Amino acid sequence: MPRRTSRTALDRLRTPGRLTGFLKTASVCALIAGLLSPLGQAAAAAEATAANDYCGSQCSDILPPGENGNATLAQILLNQAFGSQPEHAEDQLGPYANLAKGYSSLTNATINTFFNDASFGVASDQVASTLSPAGRTDVTIVRDKKTGVPHITGTTRYGTEFGAGYAAAQDRLWLMDVFRHVGRGQLTTFAGGAPSNQGLEQQFWRNAPYSEADLQTQIDNAVANNGTRGQQALADANAYLAGINAYIDASDSGRYFPGEYVLTGHKDSVTNAGTIDHFKLTDLVALASVIGALFGSGGGGEVNNAISLLAAQEQYGVTKGTEVWESFRERNDPEAVLTVHNGESFPYATKPTTPQGEALPDADSVSTEPLVYDPTGTGGDQSASAAAATATANALTSAKRGMSNALVVSGKYTASGHPVAVFGPQTGYFAPQLLMLQEIQGPGISARGASFAGLSMYVELGRGQDYAWSATTSGQDIIDSYAVELCQDDYHYLYHGTCTAMEKIEQKNSWAPTTADGTAAGSYTMRVWRTKYGPVEYRATVGGKKVAYTTLRSSYMHEADSIIGFQMLNDPDYVKSPQTFQSAVQHINYTFNWFYADSTHTAYYNSGDNPVRASGVDAEFPVWAQSAYEWKNWNPTTNTADYTAASAHPNSIDQDYYISWNNKQAKDYTTAPWGDGSVHRGNLLEDRVKKLVAAGGVTRAALVKAMADAALADLRAEDVLPDLLKVINSSTVTDSTAAAAVTKLQTWLTAGGKRTETSAGSKAYANADAIRILDAWWPLLVEGEFKPGLGSDLFTAFQANLPVDESPSAAHGPTGAHAGSSFQYGWWSYVDKDIRAVLGETVQGPLANKYCGGGSLSACRDILISTLKTAAGKTAAQVYPGDDLCSAGDQWCADSIVQRTLGGIKHYNISWQNRPTYQQVVEFTSHR
Predict the structure, then answer these.
(1) Which residues are registered as beta bridge partners of 539?
(2) Rounded Cα gap, residues 190 and 261, in angstroms
(3) pLDDT at position 392, please?
(4) What is the pLDDT, as a whole number, of residue 817?
């Protein structure tokens, strides 16, 4: 039997009527009265332990909202009616949220008030249940009382992986099913035609329009190219799938499967008619393509770069315009915060002296390639069009949501003499969460940590016996845009001089209203035209010739390859040192920054298949699709090429400290997103950790405090506002409205410039007026400062390269609003450099011109005061207009974090923090 609420007659009830927000409360009260049985206490089990834990009870982790991401129909109805939660669905949300007000008094002894004990094994008095899945004798799944995390112990490799699959399905079956359909571009047909579902499937399918044959080819190649480890990965995946499918069968016959299958019309709660499709190997690749596209595929944006360059040259002339463009691009800004900060250079994607093969579009000739065709009903209404536009923008921008941070300090500067790390991925907030916690112990596997649901045959981020590792998104450019010259018609192109037909890939989707999603019926066809140089993303003319701009990604058709690196990370016989850790992550082709800590050493490595570009090719812009400008030794059939050597990737062992918050990796290492300048959210970590290291004696608590303090900081307030106020206060402020605003801002700045509640649970910010003023002021001051000098067209074009702002209340790409992650992209570096230049201060890597007031301090001051007065006059309701969750003017709510529902269980929103979703705190005391 499952560990959840005992099955009752309610599990079989057909959901009544159409649910509003999944449920009309009154209509369910009569149904559930008297039908509930108490939670069944699992039988006591023998203690489950794992040997070789070298962390000395000093490893901790957290992953809100909770481990249990599955819910029966009964549990969903109860949650929607009364807010009750299935066991372990929400028990990590409170501790996670409470750190925002509790970190100031944190000690090593109180860390696990806000985190879980991440030691291996489960103490005998903490065992909640023990399960031998499908009656197998070679694996057990032990769950602990506190969090319900599965601790999987196998005596055979097959049994271990079977247990991992079974546990994954226990905790995330519905979510796994959702995302295998997202990866195939079939979400609307599976889960309903809501605009958010349309946008999600369109965004990901545009970047990875794979056929079933493509998915299978990836598997075949990954196995064939990786020898014994490839064969082991295939065996592991098959065992993992067998475990998933065993749970599907058991939950189906036992009728305790996730209730979303009933609410979306896939199962009948009375007759149990309907099916839950078994998982297959290609589903895992579809899942991996989503995760890789969302978090690990840096690059793109070359066409937008070309458009803004042309706008700059139109505004200023070719020479000056190019200078202006380069100054805003900040390819290698000398003031940028670095992860490898010892001065070592790792040149990549640098600007060539004489660019070759550039294929810049003719003015006003660019149009985005349509994805949606033949829409009907709600597939073509206004909401659908808005969702499609957002999905297209998210898919094509270089400003991908990087998220994630890391703070790692060498043992030379800690109190214990052992390295200390606080790190984790910032993957957004979902219900169920995209990640799941687990411990896996079996032949060749020994690890605890987080994995993406449906890909949890290995721990992807976590700890081994005597080491821990984590990652942040790096964003270096592994995507290039090629201009293919058209011939014959719009669907043929020249490939090495031969007119070649494009390949048409289509996905037809249709939907009808369900209990879960009342969106009216609709349909559409998603269509992508593929070339040997990748999918077509734009049409344009270049020198009067008709072209299609394609996108070629080095990880395209290779999402399955990274499984080998994750397999190595879980293998205690492979990872024994910082060097072997670096060797393992070199097998991961996603663009990530990887961090490592054991009891003696720390390490860093930047992963990804960085293509070796032809001499003279500038990675910033589209180039002609001709052999002279292709990647070195590129094979279009397999999409393989020569890649830069491992030693050419930013890497380091035992640096004094490492920080990463999606900032620049190292000197001369160009990343694809714009904004790696003098002010970056990485500075929030750098300034705090650098200060700790200078003082010495760093503890786990001190490093957690540094992270938590940065998580509440408003980057604009901490690093830009002081200079803005310096300009304003260069003369006495005589206007009463402006003076009052300045006083509020200065008071907030003196208090630390943080967005924090007056007290825990107050749902109101301290210095709320100052925060409102800055939120309103920032976009106004940026426009007032830069638009007159740049001109309207260039100002608009630059915003397509880099958004002006990313405050907590803004929307955040595919995760929507209320997503936590903030201040990754914005014009804070531009404002900082320009204001300092106007003040006459030294600026390394300055902008090509002075913009604020044309370089006049008094004129700049006038602009700042004028825009500040306008901002001060905006009401809270104007600044925070409200949404489905928040009423207009509710500042705290506008910032708050919501676990975005991907199923039937809802959770309360929590106060804003800018921190990893899954997070580890580690300090190993010894080593094998």
Answers:
(1) 367, 548
(2) 10
(3) 73
(4) 83
Q: Give dist(CA 669, CA 663) in Å, integer.
A: 11
Helix, strand, coil abundance in the chain, percent, nearest 5: 40, 20, 45
Please provide residue 112's backbone torsions phi and psi, each rounded to the nearest 5 degrees.
-80, 10
Distance CA 698, CA 692 (A): 6
Contact 425, 295 (CB under 8 A): yes
The answer to whether 719 and 683 are in contact (CB under 8 A) is yes
Q: What's residue 11's pLDDT?
A: 32
- Tell me the pLDDT tens digit for each residue of 337-359: 999 999 999 999 999 999 999 99
Annotate 641-710 with three-state secondary structure.
CCECCHHHCCEEECCCEEEECCCECCEEECECCCCCCCCCCHHHHHHHHHHHHHHCCECHHHHHHHHHHH
Omega of the bond leading into 779 within 30 degrees of 0 (cis): no
Under DSSP, the state recorded for 122 is: B
Helix and strand element counts for the chain (H, E): 26, 30
Q: How many CB atoms lie within 10 A of CB 631?
A: 19
Exposed/middle/buried for residue 759 (C-beta within 10 Å: 0-12, 13-18, 19+): exposed
Listed as ranges, residues in the chain with pLDDT below 50 are 1-49, 813-815
Global pTM?
0.94
Cβ of 626: how many Cβ atoms within 10 Å?
18
Separation of alpha carbons 460 and 471, rounded Å: 9
Query: Distance (Å, rounded) from C-alpha 871 to C-alpha 339?
Result: 36
Q: How many residues does the chain have?
A: 928
Cβ neighbors of 21 (< 8 A, separation 6 or more) are: 80, 906
Question: Mapping DSSP to helix (H, G, I), strand (E, B) and coil, where does residue 141 land?
Answer: strand
| Euclidean distance between CA atoms 445 and 160, whole angstroms | 9
Going by C-alpha positions, the residue among 368, 346, 358, 259 that lies closest to residue 309 is 358
- The DSSP 8-state label assigned to residue 455 in this structure reads -
- Owner of token pair 């039997």: 1
For residue 40, the model assigns a pLDDT of: 30
CA distances (Å), origin 325, targets 276, 312, 313, 801, 849: 53, 6, 8, 11, 11
Instruction: Indicate the DSSP class of residue 443.
Output: T
Segment 480-514, tens digit of pLDDT: 999 999 999 999 999 999 999 999 999 999 999 99
User: 């998915």: which residue's tokens?
Assistant: 215
> How far is 356 from 146, CA to CA, in rounded Å?
61
CB 103 within 8 A of CB 708: yes
Backbone angles phi, psi at 339, to 5 degrees: -80, -50
Alpha carbon dihedral 447, 148, 916, 558, in 10-degree steps, equals: 50
> Can you list the alpha helix ranges (DSSP code H) found in 812-889?
828-838, 857-872, 876-879
CA distance 455 to 178: 13
Residues 898 and 428: their CA atoms lie apart, in Å, by: 9
